[in-house]
């Protein structure tokens, strides 16, 4: 295993046999392009909002159909006010569950959510909620 290769760099490997009689003649590989063998995951399923209270909502989603060849390490859930343009993270730590109770919401506001999965290759595409949850709806 060769580590610390930089993605996008071309590498040539040289191999030599070593035994009690010494070091053999080196052979070289063809040039090889270093790349991550994984791809970012596809988007999780559409987030759904349930258990709405005046200042919280439970948001749930499903796993991505394609993990990009690597285990899903976690999820990032973001929210924004329906009239806003700025997305903010709902979680400080990486989520491993497929649900999160989002707290600290303002009563009477509509919120939109989006979720993305992350693997060894990085963050995948996000999936936005189909509808917007309004805090305070019971």
Description:
The strands form five sheets. Strands 9, 10, 12, 13 and 14 form a five-stranded antiparallel beta sheet that branches. Strands 7-8-11 form a three-stranded antiparallel beta sheet, with no helix packed on it. The protein contains no helices and 14 strands. It is rod-shaped. The protein is mostly beta strands.
List keywords for this structure.
single chain, 138 residues, mainly beta, 0% helix
Give the helices and strands as they follow along the chain. EEEEEEEEEEEEEE
Label the structural class: mainly beta
Low-confidence stretches: none
**What's the pLDDT, averaged over the residues?**
87
Specify Rg, calculated over alpha carbons. Answer: 23 Å
Question: How many individual helices?
Answer: 0
Oligomer: single chain
Number of strands: 14
End-to-end separation in angstroms reads 56 Å
Task: Describe the sheet with the most strands.
Answer: 5 strands, antiparallel
Work out the helicity level.
under 10%
Strand content: 35-45%
Q: What is the overall shape?
A: rod-shaped
């Amino acid at each position: 295993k060769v580590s610390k290769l930089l993605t996008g760099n071309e590498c040539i490997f040289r191999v030599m046999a070593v035994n009690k009689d010494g070091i053999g003649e080196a052979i070289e590989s063809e040039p090889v392009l270093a790349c991550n063998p994984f791809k970012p995951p596809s988007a999780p399923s559409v987030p759904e909002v349930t258990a709405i209270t005046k200042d919280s909502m439970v948001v749930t989603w499903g796993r991505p159909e394609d993990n990009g060849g690597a285990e899903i390490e976690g999820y990032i859930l973001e929210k924004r006010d329906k009239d806003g343009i700025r997305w903010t993270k709902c979680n400080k730590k990486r989520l491993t569950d497929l649900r999160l109770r989002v707290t600290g919401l303002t009563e009477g506001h509509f919120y939109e959510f989006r979720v993305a999965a992350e693997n060894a290759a990085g963050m995948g595409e996000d999936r936005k909620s189909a509808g917007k949850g309004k805090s305070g709806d019971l």
